[in-house]
Amino acid sequence: MSEDFLYFLWQFQYFDKTNLQTVAGESLQTLAVGQRNTNAGPDFLNGRVLIDGLEWVGTIEMHLRSSDWHRHTHSHDRAYDSVILHVVWENDAIIQRPDGTSVPTLELKPLTSRQLLYKYQALTESKEVIPCASQFATSAEIQKLSMLDRALMQRLERKAAAVHEMLERNHQDWEETAYQLLAQNFGFKINAEPMLRLAQGLPLKVLQKHRDNLTQMEALLLGQSGMLPAIENTDNYVDILRREYDFLSAKYSLKPQQLRAHEWKFLRLRPANFPTVRLAQLATLVQRQPSLFSLFIHTETLKMLQNALRVEQSGYWQKHYQFQKEATGKVPALGKTSVENIIVNTVVPLLVAYSEAKDSRLFLDKALELLEQLPAEQNHITEMWEGLALKTKTAFDSQGVIELYNNFCSEKRCLNCGIGTALLKS
Ligand code: SF4
């Protein structure tokens, strides 16, 4: 049993209300359940109830046992003096206000149907990775679609909030923020964190000063990554990069932010995903685009965006996955799936954040349109849902199911989920 279940019972008034009474025997009628309060203080605000014919307006507090009132030291907190109703699962203590009057208490345990309780336990005690798996097929299609829409919007808002935070750190510089987001995305999860730190320590403004010289841009990115071999050798490209980096890092005072080679992960990565190759691709992309931000926000069609992002790295990195180790075949350019990943994880969140900043629906619609045009991601989460006959055709669908699983199912937040509450109410 959890307080979340009490919130659910109260919010939807899912208990027997025939001849409803407080534990003291006063007649009770709910006029308004109030709004759930997720901040400090009582659980519901602006509730309205009739107790023995007298209307009360104020806050409502919920506990599994009435004695929790003392355990949570509400008696010493003046915010609880205005509680008009104490809703509990079991009543095991009389609660009084500082003036000696009793707090009217409603006990829900005797009023809750066994069937509802059984359904609730079936969800919360389920051993399935998706707790409602055995009942999912019985859930109405409309419930599923509306919950997936809600989950998708929640995901987009969360990602946009991260963009706003980054923007704040960058003093509202959208261009620098677009570059940092892109660099982080080029780390493809495993190296996302060092990629972001690298971009934070090597401003786009510095890179752009060398747009006429790709080797210098590679020297800046690879030198700043700490992966550039330190010892003189016969590899001419490495020697050039080292000389360029020594000069440029001194010119722009970059050394204090330089990363160390050991901060990068190569283990269990496909060679095409090695950070060395990704940095070379990033260099080419930054060189080609006078404004990454404009590219992401103003490119008209998905096709145009995909073409602009499908970059091929410089000659050396077409033959090497790592410094000084020649590859057996040609190193591939940034692939179709990687480009789609960048659109989903960089372009879309940036569009949503920009839509919020400009208070314009236009950019949000554009973000949603991109997701609807891209194919669904394939991963273990989308496969799990497909096992429950929930098909994901586009990235719009897959982003929704990923969010639903990560932030609802795996945390057993079924009572906050439209599908879960519908299953309980059915
Ligand atoms: S959160 Fe929703 S979809 Fe996930 S298991 Fe619970 S009821 Fe099912």
Tell me the helix content.
40-55%
Bound molecules: iron/sulfur cluster
Kindly report how far apart the N and C termini lie.
20 Å
**Beta-strand percentage?**
5-15%
Beta strands, count: 8
Q: What is the average of the pLDDT values?
A: 95
SSE string: HEEEEHEEHHHHHHHHHHHEEHHHHH
Main β-sheet description: 6 strands, mixed
Radius of gyration: 29 Å
Q: What overall geometry do the principal axes of the alpha carbons give?
A: elongated
The low-pLDDT segments are none
Given helix and strand content, the structural type is: alpha/beta
Q: Compute the number of helices.
A: 18
Question: What is the structure about, briefly put?
Answer:
The protein is of the alpha/beta class. Helix content is 49%, strand content 10%. The longest helix is centred in the middle third of the chain and has 29 residues, at 141-169.
Describe the structure.
This protein is α/β, with parallel strands linked by helices and 426 residues long. Among the domains are: 110 residues, no CATH class; 158 residues, no CATH class. 49% of the residues lie in helices and 10% in strands. The strands form two sheets. Strands 1, 2, 3, 4, 5 and 6 form a six-stranded mixed β-sheet that branches. Helix 8 runs antiparallel to helix 10 and helix 15 packs across helix 17. The structure holds iron/sulfur cluster. Iron/sulfur cluster binds next to helix 18.
